Amino acid sequence: MSPEINPFLQSSTSLEQATVTPQKNSRFFSPLVVEGGSLGIYGERGVGKSLMLNYIANPPRDWKEAYLQNHISIFFNCQDTIIPLSISNFWLQTIKQLDRKLEPSPIKDKCRALLTRIDEGNELNHNDFHEVLDVAAGAAKRIVLVLDDFDCLIRTSPEHFDNTRTFLQGFRSLTTRDSNRANLVVATRYSLQELCKPLTTPNYSAFENGFTNYRLRSFSESELLKFLQRVEQTNQPPFTPAETRYIAYLSGYHPRLIQIAAAELFDQRFDIQLPLSDPSSIGERFKSEARPILEGLWQGTSEIEKLLLMLITLQKLEGKVTGARYELRDLPDFLETKDREINELTERGLLIRTQDNPPTWDLFSPIFQWWILKEIESSDPEQLNDRRKVWGELVTQKRADQMGELVKWVKQNPESLKQLWDFVMQMATTGGFPKLPGT
User: Fold this and answer.
1) Which of 13, 114, 362, 420 has the fewest beta carbons closer than 10 A?
2) CA dihedral of residues 85, 87, 88, 91 (deg, nearest 10)
3) pLDDT in tens, the chain (439 residues)
4) For residues 128 and 337, what is the distance between their CA atoms, to the nearest angstrom?
5) CA 40 to each of CA 22, 56, 255: distance values in angstroms, whole numbers, following the listed order
6) What does the DSSP 8-state code read for residue 282?
């Protein structure tokens, strides 16, 4: 038996191959054709922001040859590169990254001259990078900064207000100066406008104009099916309809979770050289591999969003996983009062609307339901007391007390976690998950 590379491992898989279309290419690259054009890509953890930035930094041949031949793209992760985090160090690292990429040229000479200033004890700022842009324009080149995890540079605590505003003004000046402008592409978890709200004043707005914003979302059904076709590059047969539905069921169409489920399923099939009659056998391995993603999704929510996710989870499980009754009959009325938060969670893909009238919601994946119960069960008393105080500030005391009792019940009944997991796996063995169109 010849060795085979798992086509769904993160290191061997390009998610953008399933999501990029000619229309999306136009949306991504058109801003970069115009001098000073900029693009802000945002979305939840694991939806493919880093991969998409790498794709933009290394554009397809047709766009490269037609419009981007003279562009020099510098791609790096701000959180991993700007250490320690400071304005001067951002410009230093940016120039270092550009210097490393360049062959001997006047632009490289300018980078070296600026780096010499650092050796002499000076600090760099946006005006120094303007000099680089001027030299690049003289060589008929344009610089494109492609920056991942740009969020880390938007620090909005009061002690950082002035420094952050100064940095963002200088950063934006790369695209608003009179001539020889750069192109910017940044990736963040939330939109630039949302991230910069705390900094906004009547006379200041960091990114209200000039940026084209694009939100990456969960896969559509067609994107899921296209992505899973990668199995056809191997000696394995295509995924069966049951296997495909199981991947969709576990992942909730979240791109990184699809990748994990498909990789685990591929390995399991490879061991037996057959499609799986019972795909639930990958469940435990998937749960372990998905843990960092689930933790990131949970930690990225606000306290009121956590409260809503907990309530919706407990309501959906009432009477199904255990015999418990939580007295949540008035939950729909409460959710109506939190319409903005519910819509935001839905936009980010953490909730799905299951019914319009009356409106009802569910979590995007049963694994995320399990994670939330696990989070409740593993919280220590001090954490729960702190959280209960926060709930009291966000909702009525009656609702906060109700949530406290629900949390207490989950902690006193840890078997509910096992029962939930068994319920999820039972759905898999009985084929109880929804069918996809065309399968």
Assistant:
1) 362
2) 100
3) 345 788 888 655 555 555 677 888 898 999 999 999 999 999 999 998 998 999 999 999 999 999 999 999 999 999 999 999 999 999 999 999 999 999 999 999 999 999 999 888 889 999 999 999 999 999 999 999 999 999 999 999 999 999 999 999 999 999 999 999 999 999 999 999 899 888 887 777 777 667 899 999 999 999 999 899 988 888 888 888 888 988 998 899 999 999 999 999 888 887 776 666 666 667 778 888 999 999 999 999 988 898 889 888 877 766 555 555 555 666 677 777 788 999 999 999 999 988 888 778 889 988 898 888 888 777 776 766 776 676 666 666 666 666 676 676 666 666 666 666 666 555 555 545 444 443 3
4) 50
5) 19, 12, 19
6) G
Rounded to 10 degrees, what is the CA torsion of 42, 46, 47, 51? 80
CB 367 within 8 A of CB 313: no
Distance CA 12, CA 2 (A): 18
> What is the rounded distance in angstroms from the CA atom of residue 240 to the CA atom of residue 268?
14
Residue with tokens 């690292």: 93
CA nearest 283: which of 254, 255, 249? 249
DSSP-H helix ranges across 186-327? 192-195, 221-228, 241-251, 255-272, 283-299, 303-317
- Residue 101 and residue 256: Cα distance in Å, rounded? 30
The whole-angstrom separation of Cα 183 and Cα 31 is 8
**Cβ neighbourhood burial of 121 (10 Å; 0-12, 13-18, 19+):** exposed
Chain centre to alpha carbon of residue 231: 25
Structure token digits, residue 171? 């950063």
